[in-house]
Each structure stands twice: as C-alpha cells, then as structure tokens.
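Minutes, project check-in
Item: structure for the 201-residue chain
Input as provided by the requester:
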Amino acid sequence: MNILTPHEAGLVIKGIFIYPTETLYAIGANVENPQAIIRIQDLKGRPLGKPLPLVTSHEGQAREWFQLQDLSLEVAWAFWPGPLSILLRPRRHLPPGVCGPDGMACVRIPAHPLARALASSVRAPVVSTSANSSGNPAPARVEDIEPAIKDHVDYVFTDPPFPYGGPPSTIVAVVGDSLSVIREGAVSIAEIQAKGFCVMV
C-alpha cells in the first residue's frame, strides 16, 4: 500500500485532489468534507441528483459505512478489489450530492493501491469521479487532464502505477435475487454472468 506523506495526508483530509485508479484519473475528496464535495460538483459541472462514486480501502471499511450484505456482499467478494461499483445504502449520514435521489451510494474497493491508501488515510470513503468536466472524455494520462480541472485542485498524485485506460468501472444494483447493470464498463455483463450471477436484461 502506498504511504502518504504528512503533507499529502493533510490535503486528502481537507482538500480536493486528482489521483490514479486502475482505469482512469479521478477527482477525490474525503466524503466527510461537504465543502470539498461542493467544490468537486462545481468544478465538473456535474448534474445534481447523480451520485458521486466512492472508493473504500477494504471490506471492513465498506461494511462499516454501507449495507454490504447478502447478494451485494457476494458480488463484492467476486469482483473487489476491481473496477465494479455496487449501489449500496449508507449506514452513516453522507453530505448532500453524494447519494442519488433514491438514497443509494455508488461504492467499490479499487485495485489501485494509492486509491485504497487514500481511503485508509482518512478512515472514510473517498470520492472517485473521473477527472474531467461533465460531458468530456475521462483522462487516462495526467497530460490529458483539462487545465480547467487540474489547475483548480489542491494536489495531483502522479506516482505509478498509472491507469491502464479503457472504460470506467461497471455499476450494478441489486434487485431481488438479480443484478441490474446501470453502466457496463470495465467489467462486462458476460464476466458478471460467468461468475454465476443473474443479470436483468
């Protein structure tokens, strides 16, 4: 796991930052910092009512913050750490703008060690929305991040390993005994079905 310097750890607690995930670069913030959440939404021009994706450091943190149980837990065991997010109901209060209108949060444990270290350092989930203005391509390289984004964050993590590019994380919701794929991304529907899960089509 990456070790943050005291300076980096302080910025992660209080500010907004860009960091690599296994797929793309993301804008992040401590989920317990509502002012940082507002800054991210304003910076991206993100539509209201669209949940901000979150990453956690490990299963224990995910279960502490969210109702990860039954089928959702089986999905987590099958695909975490990795680029598949699950819509989960929070156990704790989250700032406005983090959850969708249905009160669900979009959560995963990433495969990237730095992304996990960030959530570990603040002992809370970290926002993980792509580092681009809404409607623009999501960047897989630091040099592809728009100046309008990069110049208005408090810190940019540029250490390897670097994102491999490709589609963003897949998002699924549990519906009874099945999964509804909200967004097919890095994990395909075929891969989900190959693990024995029933996918609504």
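Outcome recorded: Helices lie at 6-14, 34-44, 59-65, 70-79, 113-122, 147-150, 189-194.
No further action items on this chain.
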